[in-house]
Amino acid sequence: MGRLLLVCRLAVKDLRYRPVQALLLLLAIAAGAATLTLGLSLQGTTNNPYARTRTVTNGPDVVASFFPGNSNASGPATGVNPGGSNTPGTGAGEAAATSLLPLEHASGVVAHSGPYPVTWTLLQIGHTTGSAEVEGRNSGSSPVDHPRLMQGTWVRPGGVVVEAAFASAFGIHVGDSLRLGGTAFRVVGTAVTAAIPAYPGTCGRPIGCFLVGNIGSYNPGLVWATEADAKQLAGSSGPEAYLLNLKLNNPAKARAFVNRYDNNASSTAPTLYSWQSIRDGDAQVIAKVQKVLFTGSWLLALLALTSVAVLVGGRMTEQTRRVGLLKAVGGTPRFVAVVLLFEHVLVGLCAAGVGLLVGWQVAPLVDKPGAGLLGAPSAPSLTGTTVALVVAVALAVAIVATFVPAIRAARQSTVAALEDSARPPRRSAAVINLSAHLPAPLLLGARLVVRRPRRLLLSVFSVAVTTSGLVAVLIIHARSATWSLGPQVIQATTIISVMLIVLAAVNAVFIAWTTALEARHPAALARALGATPEQITTGLSVAFLPPALLGALLGIPGGIAIYDGARSGGGTTTLPSALWLVAMVILTLLVIAGLTAVPTRIGARRPVAEVLQAETA
Amino acid sequence: MNEPEKVLVRAQGLRKEYGRQGGLVRAVNSVDLEVARGEALAIMGPSGCGKSTLLHLIGGLDRPSAGELWLAGRRIDRLSERELAGLRRHEVGFVFQAYHLMDELTAQENVELPALLAGRSPGEARRRARQLLDQVGLAERADHLPSALSGGQRQRVAIARALANEPQLVLADEPTGNLDSAATLEVLRLFEALHAAGLTLVIVTHDERIAATADRLISMRDGTFVDETHLAGGTRGNLVDLAGLGSE
To answer: Looking at the complex, does the CB of residue B165 fall below 8 Å from at least one CB of chain A?
Structure first.
């Protein structure tokens, strides 16, 4: 009982006595735990909002589409001119619309709305240009797929309603003016529907969509206009497609209905898709976000492991005398190891709690299809598996990083620990020979940095993991010239990038701090012999650059491998431009130089006499 | 009284070596020593003569390279690290020049530390710590962190901690080395009281005034004993006067 109390007291008191270190340790582990929670808790989050929207808007069970221009493609077609020469005239379009009519009376159909004309055109609002899928609607309500207005009123001549997620992404508000195919319209409302995947997943349904002109970098968003306005936008060639919404007596059999009536082999047959495929189209966006977050969370966990290893190493360096004292008053090596491990396990547990809470709360913000679906996105429920996995990862990170330093500290000679003498450095003849020709500050810096190979390796690893993540993000953005990215993915990559950079910065600072702490005696001696604090700082900071450069260079193939692994698909990877990669490497070196200068500078400012006296006390 | 009852510490041919071959240093070189129960022994000598190393060996902080070492009739030079920890927990109390208090623990918690390590209940450890802090005159400072205490007060906390498990032997390594005269006097008075209570003390010091308060004085040089003086009448009752601090 007494020993248990003592272990708890020593752990808690030490954490409270060094709050900044404890907080950084907690943040490092919590960052990985939060991202992992986020990735795990996003699974299936679109199901409920989609079901709600479907109920409220009386969403269709099956949507049938017909392309009069023989474009019944099942995937997105890019660069198609809506006024193409091979499209039939208005008469042909209307005749095509009538070809959908038999489905209204097909077996199992209990209600329908449409056929509605659809055309694809350019959308301009202010200086922003996008692509729009314009669907012609009556001003009255429809029995099937009755979009729920979020703001404003329903369509009227010259007045359009914009799908809510599309409006949110482009900053379109009720009352704004926009141009569709060069014609000015007033935005009179925003609405949600369950008949099409919300922006940017519009192209996620089986019929795909048309992308207009040379603006392939934008997904088309849905805009409702009056039928007359939609037909006018289509021009003389007429609408490019017609959509018919069907309600079945048994929605669960929508896929079977689609299989029965859809005939992709015939160009004259309509294309059908079920409400389940629309729901899956919505889920595609989250699936991409999830992939980014999941990959990112593992990168962050690796980085957290490095951070914790560095932080623990630094803490152990500071706690040498404490270890000696514990042993001097009768603590066994096992007791000392238990105290050190328990302290970090405690932090790991707290970090898991913080990570779970943050990930759980942030999930609805990332689950942005909620903007295009009804019901405010709420925090997903945390499953037992998610909690167990996150706690296990956080604890594993804490234990793995602490184990070796704790055992080493526990085995250290009591007398040496009480004297707080630094572990004897490893010496490398190659480094000694290489650095012999350097100016004195650089020579000192190089030898001090190289004498701890494990820490040097952690430094390289930390930079390599961070730059790998950044290169993977750059590749994703290099591909964003195509239409496949949405704001959610960009948001997720931004979150991951920022967290990677912050953790890497913490690592850099602590590696430099630990080195400066260990270098206090030789640095004080050098200053006693005439070196300035600036020379000491410069020497140490510059010595950190070669490992940073190596890490940054390793990050380039690392990032490509991570992207390829996460994509798990064929095709070639679009690499970011060489300029971007060079800029990233240079920026990495500058940041590392700046970050390492701070702790080394603080270390070099300690009075020489104080350091030398402390060493001899 | 048989030997273990009379002699608390016995060393024979004790050696401690560092380095190898040409770089070999004998910090303690073939030392023979006996310390009687209740005796106050002072060890003096220049820096690097091996006196602190000898103290570390006696207290089980370090292991000898050769020779035999006995404490209360038990041979301790071959004990494992775990057994040595037990020895330090129950038989020996240390007082260091640099105090070596846990910065993050209060005075009371620092004194409780050895008792809790020895498996005493938290309540018992607390009561014992209160009693010891009262004994060293720091009951009102029990809840202060070491950083809020003066050098003399820290050393008194360290002495209280050394007594937490009622050890047979207290080893003090330059206990007044960092203290001014007033604080030195406070610490000496405590040692006087401990000695009067029959506790065995081994004090390593540079200060001749402190050494003069002991029953016996051993001088060391280059790892060996070069002189031994039995001080007339010991120190009981007049330790402070002997130290020449009474008028300060």
So the answer is: yes
Task: Please tell me if residue A421 touches chain B, with a CB cutoff of 8 Å.
Answer: no
Mean pLDDT, residues A350-374:
73
pTM beyond 0.80, yes or no: no
Q: Is residue B5 part of a domain?
A: no
Instruction: Give the separation between CA A90 and CA A237, rounded to whole angstroms.
Output: 6
Question: Measured in Å, how far apart are chain A's first and last C-alpha atoms?
Answer: 36
- Pairing mode, if any, of strands A183-192 and B66-71? unpaired
A260 phi, psi to nearest 5 deg:
-75, -40
Alpha-carbon distance A369 to B12, whole Å?
83
Looking at the domain assignment, is residue B12 inside a domain? no
**From the CB of residue A266, how many other CB atoms can be counted at a distance below 10 Å?**
9
Average pLDDT, chain A: 76
Where do we find the tokens 């048309």? A210
CA distance A423 to A407: 14
* Contact yes or no for B171/B93 (Cβ under 8 A): yes
What is the distance of C-alpha A307 from the center of its chain?
Answer: 20
A180-206 pLDDT, tens digit each: 888 889 999 988 888 887 776 666 555
Tens-place pLDDT, residues A253-296: 888 888 777 766 566 667 778 888 877 777 666 677 777 777 87
Compute and round to an integer the Cα radius of gyration of chain A. Answer: 31
Structure tokens at A473: 């993000």
DSSP one-letter code for A210? B
Using CA atoms, how far apart are residues A262 and A242, in angstroms rounded to an integer?
A: 15
Q: Which residue has the tokens 């990570």?
A: A355
Which tokens go with A552?
Answer: 């940054």
Q: Is B115 part of the contact surface with chain A (CB cutoff 8 Å)?
A: yes
Segments forming the whole domain that contains residue B178: 37-62+81-242
Q: Rounded distance, CA A400 to CA B126, Å?
A: 35
Q: What angle do CA A246, A251, A252 make, to 5 degrees?
A: 145
**Which of A606, A483, A579, A519 lies closest to A79, judged by CA?**
A483
Q: What percentage of chain A exceeds 90 in pLDDT? A: 3
Select from B85, B100, B103 the Cβ nearest to the Cβ of A17. Answer: B103
At CA A215, angle to CA A214 and CA A220, rounded to 5? 135
CATH number of the domain to which B152 belongs:
3.40.50.300
Residue B89 at interface with chain A, using a CB cutoff of 8 Å: yes
Tell me whether residue B6 is in a domain.
no
Q: Is the pLDDT of residue A617 over 50?
A: no
Average pLDDT over every residue of A134-148: 83
- The separation between CA A232 and the C-alpha centre of its own chain, rounded to angstroms, equals 42
Nearest partner of B215 among B194, B197, B239, judged by Cα: B239
Tell me whether residue B3 is in a domain.
no
Query: What interface predicted TM-score (ipTM) does this complex get?
Result: 0.76
Counted domains in chain B: 1
The alpha carbon of residue A283 and the mean position of all alpha carbons in its chain are separated, in whole angstroms, by 16
Percent of chain A surpassing pLDDT 70: 76
Nearest CA in chain A to B171: A328
| Beta strand extents in A104-158 (DSSP E only) | 109-125, 128-137, 148-152
Q: Which of A329, A338, A616 to mutate to test the interface with B (most CBs of B within 10 A)?
A: A329
Give the per-residue pLDDT at A550: 92
